[in-house]
Every structure is written in C-alpha cells, then in structure tokens.
C-alpha cells in the first residue's frame, strides 16, 4: 500500500495558507477552463521527475506510490473507498468506460459538454442497438428532476449529467435526481466543474468522473473515475486493458477476466507524474477544506453578481447559491465588445457566442475583482464616434 500523503510540512494547512498559494497575476477569471498550477504541484513535479531520472528502483517505486495516494485522496473527497477509483488520462475517457459498457436507454441533455453527448452518441453507435440515448432539451439547459421525470420509464438504465454545467453554471440537485432514479438506475456524474470546490454527497452517484486541471490546479492527465458496486455490476468493462485484468502484474500467457474493482476500467499503466499532481492537488483542497473553499467562491460570485448588476449587465447563470458553483455567465447586449474590453483590461475569461463566462476561485484576489469592476465601468462609459 502507498504511504499516505501528509499535509505540507506535516502540519494541517490552514485555509489562509491555502489562499496564499494563489500566485498568478491579477485578472485570472478562467478557472472553469484551466487552473494555473499551484506552487506545491509545480514543486512536486520537479521532485518526482528527478526521482524518475535516477533510474533507481527504489526511486521509481516511490513515484509509483503516487497512484495509491491519488486514489486514496480522491476516494476521501468523494466519500468512498480507493478500490472504487480508477485513475484516467481524462474525464472523457472515464465517461467512455462508463458509457461503452452500458445497455438500455440513457438520459442526457443535448446541451451537455461533448464529453457526455458525443461519448453517448459514439457508444450507442457501437452498441448494435443495445444502448439508446434518450435526449432531453430542457428549458435553459437545466437538468432538473422535472425534466428527467418527463422521460423516465422502465427502459431507462441511467442518467448521465454534469454536476455543474460548463456553459450555464447550473448545479443540479444531486439528492433529488438520485431519489427520482431510484436504486435500479445508474446516476453517472461529470463532476469536472465541482470536484474539490463543492461539498456534496458524491457517493449518491454510481459513477463520478472528474479531473485536476481546473479547480485542483494540477494540470492535464489528472483525471479519475469512481465506479461503485452497482456500476461495476451493470457496466461491462468494454475498454478494459492490461491493467484492468484480475491478476497481480502483467497477464502474460493468460487471458484473465476483468478485475472486480474499478481497476477493470483502466487500459494501461497510469502516468505516475500525473498521479502525483492529482494527489497533491487533492491533498491541498482536502487540507484547506472543501466547505471553506466553496464558501469563499460563493462570496466571490456574490461580488461578481453585484458588479454585473451595478453595471446593468444581464446574468444568465443561476443567482441562488444552491443552484450555482463557481461559474457566472454574463449575457450582455454586445458580447463581443464586452469580451474585447475585458481582454484589453487584462482579464482572462471565456467568451463563447452570446455569453462571457467568468469563474473565480477561492484565492481570487480583490485586485482581480476590482479590475473587473473597472473594466465594466470603462465598457459602460465608452462612446463611439461614427465616421
Ligand atoms: C463539464 C466538463 N466535462 C468534461 C470536460 C472535459 O474533461 P477532460 O478534458 O478531462 O476530458 C470539461 C472541460 O472543460 C467540462 O467542463
């Protein structure tokens, strides 16, 4: 078993310590797209790379312990056991393992991030009719219990849904969806926009995928998928590879069945450097406390909503705390002009179509929020001269 990963300096890090690690330049409001790597992740990458560079078996073994550490920490944050966690190169690959092995009707919104919609479509196409998407197009793209209830029948095997929608910022009601689905259907959750920054009963979902390159500040390659016993019973490990076999070590001269644990949903040996980054990112949010992180993000969102309101900019993401997480969606009359004004002011956001997505993290500083306020003031005061 891997050595447990302790806190930095072997002391429980305080929330204030955590906030002080946010060291990117003011103006960064794009956490829903990418999280600049934390100092601890950056340091550990170098340390682990040095160990791998030595070629010593003991050093390689030390870095390999990152796999178990990452599984333990992700499991702790999800309220489950490490054996239910399979490390993945991306959360989309986690969803592929879940959806390619399913049969029956699977409910999903057409407006989901393509990691859900496209994967479901591809899995159905490969299933020779065994898997059928049951698409829904709810109002405002919100996957509410009512929207799901409308299409629920005995053929439905699962619902696949984003915990927090990447485009609208809407947070689903996990408990209500679980109750609606009952014990006989799977709840497959994409927690990319919530893991580590939203306290929730993740154990209510049978499959949970997420990654560390946004809110965990751990870079790409740091994804995971949780498969509980019900999921493992119903999802055939269709994409199971050499690490997924029910054997210790390499299955040579043998064709064993898939492992009983979540390892069945893996293909080959994980990237130990990525596992290390995930472990550090997960440890840092665990030590700081997800509840404290969530509260601070909510406070920042309140400030951003107040700024938008004061400048007369419409907001299309939810206003109620229970329905939102870290994403605010501005829907101004002139989105392209607003996006340009924010970029000119040094603010990093995601501009897409008619909206501008703004996402603050717990460590977002007052200078950044002030920059936003100033940029919106300038945007509102701009006058045009027509030739
Ligand atoms: C909700 C959601 N799901 C999935 C992804 C993609 O995750 P990955 O790159 O780990 O496949 C994203 C990326 O923005 C996302 O926002």
UniProtKB/TrEMBL annotation:
From which residue to which does any coiled coil extend?
none
Q: What is its EC number?
A: 3.7.1.3
Q: Which UniProt keywords apply?
A: Hydrolase
Identify the residues that the record assigns to the Aminotransferase class V domain, covering every copy: 64-357
Q: Which residues form the signal peptide?
A: none
Q: Reply yes or no: does the keyword Hydrolase apply.
A: yes
Q: Which domain of life is it from?
A: Bacteria
Q: What is a GO molecular function of this protein?
A: kynureninase activity
What PANTHER family has UniProt attached to this entry? Answer: BLR3095 PROTEIN, CYSTEINE DESULFURASE
The identity of this protein, by name, is: Kynureninase
Whose protein is this, by species? Microbacterium oxydans
């Amino acid at each position: 078993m891997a050595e447990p990963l302790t806190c930095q300096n072997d002391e429980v890090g305080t929330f204030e310590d955590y906030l002080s690690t946010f060291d990117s330049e003011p103006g960064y409001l794009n956490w829903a797209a990418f999280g600049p790597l934390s100092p601890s992740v950056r340091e550990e990458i170098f340390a682990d790379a040095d160990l791998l560079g030595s070629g010593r078996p003991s050093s390689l073994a030390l870095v390999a312990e990152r796999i178990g550490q990452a599984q333990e920490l992700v499991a702790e944050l999800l309220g489950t056991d490490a054996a239910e966690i399979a490390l993945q190169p991306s959360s989309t690959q986690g969803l592929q393992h879940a959806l390619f092995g399913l049969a029956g009707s699977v409910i999903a919104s057409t407006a989901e991030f393509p990691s859900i919609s496209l994967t479901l479509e591809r899995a159905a196409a490969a299933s020779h009719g065994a898997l059928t998407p049951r698409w829904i197009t709810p109002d405002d793209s919100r996957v509410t219990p009512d929207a799901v209830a409308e299409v629920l029948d005995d053929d439905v095997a699962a619902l696949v849904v984003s915990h927090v929608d990447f485009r609208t910022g809407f947070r689903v009601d996990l408990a209500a969806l679980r109750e609606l689905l009952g014990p006989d259907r799977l709840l497959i959750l994409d927690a990319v926009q919530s893991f580590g920054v939203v306290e929730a009963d993740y154990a209510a979902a049978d499959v949970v995928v997420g990654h560390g390159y946004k809110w965990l500040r751990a870079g790409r390659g740091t994804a995971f998928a949780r498969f509980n016993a019900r999921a493992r019973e119903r999802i055939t490990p269709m994409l199971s590879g050499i690490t997924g076999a029910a054997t210790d070590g390499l299955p040579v001269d043998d064709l064993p069945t898939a492992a009983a644990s979540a390892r069945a949903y893996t293909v080959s040996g994980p990237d130990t450097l990525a596992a290390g980054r995930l472990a550090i990112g997960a440890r840092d949010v665990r030590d700081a406390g997800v509840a404290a992180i969530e509260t601070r993000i909510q406070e920042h969102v309140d400030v951003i909503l107040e700024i938008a309101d004061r400048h007369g900019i419409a907001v299309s993401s939810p206003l109620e705390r229970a329905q939102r997480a870290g994403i605010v969606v501005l829907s101004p009359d002139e989105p392209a002009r607003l996006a340009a004004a924010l970029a000119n002011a040094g603010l990093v956001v995601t501009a897409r179509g008619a909206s501008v997505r703004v996402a603050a993290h717990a460590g977002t500083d007052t200078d950044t929020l002030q920059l936003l306020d100033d940029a919106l003031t300038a945007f509102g005061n701009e006058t045009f001269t027509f030739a």
